[in-house]
Structures are given as structure tokens and as C-alpha cells.
Amino acid sequence: MIEETDISKEGLLAAYKNIVMERLFDKKMLNASRQGFLPFYIPLMGHEAIHIGMGMAIRDEDFFYPYYRDFGVLIQMGIPIDTILSQVFATATDNEIGRDMPDHFSLKKYNIGAVITPVAGHLTSATGIAYAKKYRKESGSVITTFGDGATSTPDFHVAMNFAGVYKLPMVFFCENNQFAISVPTYPTDDKAFNQTYEETRGAIYKKAESYGFSGIRIDGTNFIEVYRATRKALENASEDPILIEAMTYRMGPHSTADDPNKYRTDRVPEGSEKDPLIVSQKLLKDMKVITDLDIKQINDEMEETTSKLIDTYEKAPKPDKETMMGNLYEEEPWYISEERGDIQ
């Protein structure tokens, strides 16, 4: 069964460790936000299998254009942890000099597009990169991610239509956690949700048909299935774009500004059979890749690693105040010089 996945036992173990690492980082960064070390944070719980499976599938020649909930993809892609956590905690070594919100990475050198806050606003930029790849006859595809709520925006329509018309080498990846903040993707029986509407009436993956290409729905709690589907899509996107809808569950709040208790009672609890971490454990145990002892040892190892890293970056120095006025203009105007003097 291992051979059928095209992943070695070592690769499967490394992927599982990253799933555990993402889960632990998520908890610790959420706590850091509550303690005042982060001004804002976007929880990841429920997306781990999507992130790690996707990170395994992305090739060197591909371009990744993420949205704000893709922390784990970067871990699996091998982006240096200093680059990731320096941005999240806005430290002095941050590539963005502490100027953006946590989880809003800008990693051009790694073929990763800049994360922006407006929902679906990056999809047209990702489509432009795919158009450039095709025009220049470059190898590789573009993969861009978004939540289910993004499929109700004009940017989604424009990007999908343009990609379909020009047959761009592009994978649209919807991480459907079934709630666009407080609105369910599809009709729900949740008694706490007393509104009569939902995010969309039709299945998201079927929307690709309107733009002339295909869409598929996959299990977003199974990292091997995510890997297989994403790798195949990236390999075939040179012929036509594709839309993937990966089904998972948002197990926590949308962000630290959200209280899901106000609008839902049907959340998937940690440790349940729908939890991607538990799904991954069962999958690998059935494949004879890990044992209960391995699971405990990996969790202990990752707990120690993530705790030390979070402690380091919580205490790391912030960018110097003089950097506030840097990199703004090629020739600094008088009013910036004046403001710089006020800061000093």
C-alpha cells in the first residue's frame, strides 16, 4: 500500500510529523495571541491534512499563491522556520520588517505569492502569473488556495473565467471548511444557526463546468488523497485548469476576532474521528507505518520543538523604529524626512 502512494515510509513519517507540528504551532500561536504576543491570528485546526498533502505535491517549477490560512504548506515545502515565525511574530529578522499581519507572508524568492487580506483578491494575480507562465512557455503550474466563502466573490468569477478561456496551467484549490466566517457553505441542520440562507446553493467543485474545465471533490482530512489529487492536477494543468474542492472542518474560530459559539454548535471536536490528526494516525497505523508508541514519541518531540521555537520568537527583538520609514521612496520626500526626525 505504501508503494501505491508514491511516498516512502520516511516521507509518510515526515508528513505526519509536520501535521503534528502544525497542530501544536496552531495551539501555541493562538495562546500567544490571547496573551498579547500577537495582535491577530488565523487558526488552522482542521486544515492540517490539506496543507501537508498539498505541500508534498508542489514541485520546484510550480508557483504557489496562498491565502491567509496556509501556514502548514510552507512548513511542508521546507521554507526556513525563521522565515515563517519571524513574519508571524514580526521580529527584527522578518522579511517584511514587521509591516504586515501574522500569516500574511511575502516569499517571492520561493515562488510563493504575497498573502493579502481581502477575500479572493489574490486569485486574479495568481491567474496573471499562470498567463505569464504560458506566454513564456515556462514549465510548471500555478496553484492558488482560497476558502469556500471566496467562491461568492467577483474575483473568483473573473479568475476562473480568464483561466478557462485561455486554458491556463492553473489549479484552483478550495479549502472548504464549511463555514465562511458565520455563514455555512451548504444548508445545515445546526439548531444554533437560525438563518435561512447559506454560502452557495450548488456544489463548489461543479462551478468549474461554467468556465469550461473540470472540477473534483476530495477528502481534505486525508493527506495522502490530497497529495495524489494535487500532484495529478499540477501535472495535468498544462492542458487545462482544474478546480479542487477539499472538504474539511473548521474546528475553531475563523480568526481571533471571531466567536463561533455565537452561531454554531456542530463543530468537530479535537480527537474525534473527523479530526485530520486522528484520520492521519489511523491511516498510517493501518498501513503499518506507525504504532501508538511512535505517535506518542512524535508528539513529545514536536511538543518540545514547537515550545522552544514559540518561546524564542515571543522574546525576539522587534524591528528598529527607524525601519518604519525605510523602503518607501527611491528619493525620500521632505515630509518623510521630517517624520523620521520626529520618531528619532
From TrEMBL:
Superkingdom of source: Archaea
Keyword Oxidoreductase (UniProt): yes
Keywords: Oxidoreductase
Gene Ontology process terms (BP): branched-chain amino acid catabolic process; sulfur compound biosynthetic process
Domain called Dehydrogenase E1 component: residue spans: 17-319
Listed GO MF terms: oxidoreductase activity, acting on the aldehyde or oxo group of donors, disulfide as acceptor
Gene3D superfamilies: 3.40.50.970
Protein name: Dehydrogenase E1 component domain-containing protein
Naturally occurring in which organism (per UniProt): Ferroplasma acidarmanus Fer1
